[in-house]
Known about the structure:
Layout: E1 15-16, E2 19-20, E3 27-29, E4 41-43
Antiparallel strand pairs: 1-2, 3-4
Amino acid sequence: MSKVSQCKVEECHYNKNFECHADGIEVLSSGTKRVSTTDNTACNTFKPKEF
């Protein structure tokens, strides 16, 4: 499995200094039948940070 090297979602629990520290990620389409841009995707691994 490829390592995710960047995370730009500051509110994500797995983001540590803009690096993803999740064991793995799951990316899904956001409901469209055919995905053609990143706008049509969603990271299902996201977990909110506790502040």
